[in-house]
Amino acid sequence: MTLLKETIHRKILKIIGDHANKITSRDLEKIIVQRISVGRWKFQTALKELIAEGELAYTYLYGCTFIEKSFNRPVRVGSQVILTPPERHPTPSGSDIVVMLRPGASFGIGQHPTTRLAIQGIEYAIKTRVCDGVSATMLDIGTGSGVLAITALKLGIDRAVGTDMDPCAINEALENAKINGLSQRFTVLDVPAEEINEQFHLIAANLRYPTLARLCPYIASHIHENGAAILSGIREEEAKEIKSIYASLNLECRWEAIENGWAGLVLVKQAPPP
Q1: How far apart (Å, rounded) are the C-alpha atoms in residues 54 and 72?
Q2: With the CA atoms of 191, 193, 196 and 197 taken in that order, what torsion angle do they form, in degrees rounded to the nearest 10?
Q3: For 232, which of 2, 4, 98, 145 is 20 to 30 Å away at the CA?
Q4: What is the CA radius of gyration of the chain?
Q5: In CATH terms, are 3-69 and 102-269 the same topology?
Q6: Given 3.40.50.800, 3.40.50.720, 3.40.50.150, 3.30.70.20, which CATH number is that of 102-269?
Q7: For residue 151, which phi and psi values (nearest 5 degrees)?
Q8: With b meaning 16 or more CB within 10 Å and e meaning fewer, what string describes 37-60?
Q9: Do 152 and 122 touch, CB atoms closer than 8 A?
Q10: Phi–psi pair at 221, nearest 5 degrees
Q11: From residue 233, how far is each of 95, 124, 142, 261 by CA, in Å?
Q12: Per-domain residue ranges of the chain
């Protein structure tokens, strides 16, 4: 590969990775041509090569075509976690874990920053043993594809419960659990989280700000002491207020990360003041 071609490839991937919103090929071309002064033909050739290599893919929404990072191949989304379609067989190294996901209609196959942030938060919570303990348990509120619960189980959580009101999501989460050999350890319920009266070492919720604020009393009262809440689905400018809401119920922020304007948080439950 020539130096110019490598530069164009690298710039295209960086722009798509850093872009907060979906981007069309026309807008991407304008940015590339302006930044590195290459002709339209060279850009289009590089884009076709990246799509052929499986790095990028066309996606469609509301009649528009966009260019996005492809998840139809193994993709690393955390320090240990690799997401992959079932038909691909990546070779993990060291402490890596592989989570197999069948593409479907449900949210959560790694394409959105909030999923990646939640996975990184789960890694942090388990690695730092904030949810350490015998037979550690997890609740995944709004489980979607089941990716967060499946990830936590593969990282060492003993048992997980997911909730979702969408029948499609429930079926897909159960299918993904089966693909990963976790059907006996992952239960998916079609009830609101508030109907589950159990204490958990880890509670994950990749939801929007109003729902996370409403769920705060429930989450705070259903986490074991020194357990953790992993929150995502928050815009960067909303993170400060969410941290304040949860801090009022003794949940202290121990980890925060930002990607493309989205925030992920790990909040650890403190012992109540004497």
Answers
A1: 7
A2: -160
A3: 98
A4: 20
A5: no
A6: 3.40.50.150
A7: -60, -50
A8: ebeeeebeebbebbeeeebbbeee
A9: yes
A10: -90, -5
A11: 27, 17, 11, 10
A12: 3-69, 102-269
Spell out the per-residue pLDDT of the chain, length 274, in tens. Answer: 576 678 888 888 888 877 777 888 888 888 888 888 777 888 888 888 888 877 888 877 777 888 888 777 888 899 999 999 888 888 888 899 999 998 776 676 787 899 999 999 999 999 987 666 568 999 999 999 999 999 999 999 999 999 999 999 999 999 999 999 999 999 999 999 999 999 999 999 999 999 999 999 999 999 999 999 999 999 999 999 999 999 999 999 999 999 989 999 999 998 776 6
Token pair of 242 as six digits: 């969410």
Length of the chain: 274
**How far apart (Å, rounded) are the C-alpha atoms in residues 130 and 80?**
18
